[in-house]
């Protein structure tokens, strides 16, 4: 008798021939289960050992199949979040770390155990209300960014073949200010700089002088820094637009970078490191330093706006400033370019002088406009 295998077996089907006698097929059949549902298939062979090997392969494949693949009604948000992170890693997106942090900190605890089909517009609105009612109320833009991975995870499930999500609900988008206004004054920059630990200090210095994105700063490698040529080479694989660019080293950057290189471990390839290990985030130390320096609402991203404003005031062309900061389009650049009070007063003085000169021009003798 063929030997049974747990949760599966190899067997020969019984049938009646033309004389009505019971017979067994010469071909072996396989029976196994995929998430509780039986599967009966022909092995296509008359060799029992070969059929047994095939059965074991089928059972192994069935065990590796995620349960939700064939049952959209069983899909949970936690599974979609895992799919989303895998998709980000596969596409080598620079925002993978930030998205993972949002998912683990906010989204998985709230949505993780929910079934995907139960995530409706009402559920989304409940999350928004809960965040707005928090003790430390986040900005509307923060809530919108938190919900972006939820929407993307559901959309990814809907695009899956076969679909894991039947319908993606409507997401309420909270209003945001179109103009980004945060900058860090130079005197405050020095206070924050001196209050930060070494790994966050060098990140601040580079961000303040060049407007480089946080994700790009933390991936700067020691061997990409050329102090003699006064530049930092950013390869395309770490920049947002996938294009390489060079950052100028000027001001107190050279001294700060040299100190960071001397203090860091040569075994760690990254400039931003602590105790020989790369540092991916410095939010806590940043928040503490900013609070102690009298700018509790300052964001690291404000350095991007600050650097652009300083470059324009220093006489850089917009193209030159965009090359350093890594902006791809003029529209995005305009959102970050802040007109400071000093520059606004200078423009007002120039306009006043221009109009005063017009007033002093001699009037035409006739009443006709020339």
What's the number of structural domains? 3
The best one-word shape is: elongated
Instruction: Give the number of DSSP strands.
Output: 11
Beta percentage is: 5-15%
Q: Can you give the mean pLDDT?
A: 83
Could you list the spans in which at least 5 consecutive residues all have pLDDT below 50?
1-5
Describe the largest sheet: 4 strands, antiparallel
Descriptors:
single chain, 370 residues, alpha+beta, hpI Integrase, Chain A, 3 domains, 4-stranded antiparallel beta sheet, 3-stranded antiparallel beta sheet, elongated, disordered N terminus
If you had to describe this structure to a student in words, what would you say it looks like?
A four-stranded antiparallel beta sheet has the order 1-2-5-6, covered by helices on one side. Strands 7-8-9 form a three-stranded antiparallel beta sheet. A two-stranded antiparallel sheet has the order 3-4. Mean pLDDT is 83; it is low at 1-5. It folds into three domains: 4-65, no CATH class; 73-159; 186-342, Orthogonal Bundle (hpI Integrase, Chain A). The chain has helices spanning 48-64, 77-90, 96-111, 121-132, 140-159, 186-195, 198-210, 214-217, 253-263, 283-292, 302-313, 318-325, 330-336, 341-359, and strands at 4-5, 8-11, 14-16, 22-24, 29-34, 37-42, 225-226, 231-234, 245-248, 273-274, 277-278. The longest helix has 20 residues, at 140-159. It is α+β, with helices and mostly antiparallel strands. Helix 3 packs across helix 5 (140-159), helix 6 crosses helix 10 and helix 7 runs antiparallel to helix 9 (253-263).
């Amino acid at each position: 008798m063929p030997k049974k295998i747990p949760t599966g077996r190899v067997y020969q089907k019984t049938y009646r021939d033309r004389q009505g006698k019971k017979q067994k097929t010469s071909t072996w059949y396989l029976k196994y289960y995929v998430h509780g549902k039986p599967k009966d298939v022909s092995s296509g062979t008359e060799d029992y050992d070969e059929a047994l090997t095939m059965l074991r392969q089928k059972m192994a494949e069935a065990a590796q199949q995620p349960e939700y693949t064939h049952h959209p009604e069983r899909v949970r948000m936690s599974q979609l979040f895992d799919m989303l992170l895998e998709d980000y890693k596969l596409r080598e997106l620079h925002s993978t770390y930030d998205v993972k942090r949002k998912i683990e900190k906010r989204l998985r605890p709230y949505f993780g155990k929910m079934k995907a089909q139960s995530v409706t517009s009402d559920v989304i609105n409940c999350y928004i209300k809960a965040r707005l009612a928090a003790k430390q109320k986040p900005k509307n833009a923060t809530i919108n960014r938190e919900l972006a991975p939820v929407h993307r995870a559901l959309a990814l499930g809907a695009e899956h073949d076969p679909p894991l999500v039947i319908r993606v609900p409507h997401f309420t988008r909270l209003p945001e200010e179109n103009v980004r206004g945060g900058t860090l004054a130079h005197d405050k920059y020095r206070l924050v700089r001196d209050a930060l630990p070494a790994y966050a200090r060098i990140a601040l210095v580079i961000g303040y002088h060049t407007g480089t994105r946080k994700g790009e700063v933390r991936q700067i490698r020691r061997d990409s820094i050329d102090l003699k040529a006064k530049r930092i080479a950013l390869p395309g694989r770490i920049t947002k637009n996938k294009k390489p660019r060079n950052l100028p080293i000027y001001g107190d950057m050279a001294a700060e970078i040299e100190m960071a290189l001397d203090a860091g471990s040569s075994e760690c390839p990254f400039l931003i490191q602590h105790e020989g290990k790369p540092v991916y985030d410095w939010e806590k130390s940043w928040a503490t330093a900013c609070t102690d320096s009298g700018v509790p609402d300052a964001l690291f991203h404000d350095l991007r706006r600050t650097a652009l404003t300083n470059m324009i005031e220093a006489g850089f062309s917009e193209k030159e400033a965009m090359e350093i900061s890594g902006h791809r389009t003029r529209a995005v650049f305009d959102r970050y370019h802040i007109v400071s009070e000093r520059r606004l007063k200078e423009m007002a003085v120039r306009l006043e002088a221009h109009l005063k000169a017009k007033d002093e021009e001699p009037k035409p003798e006739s009443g006709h406009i020339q």
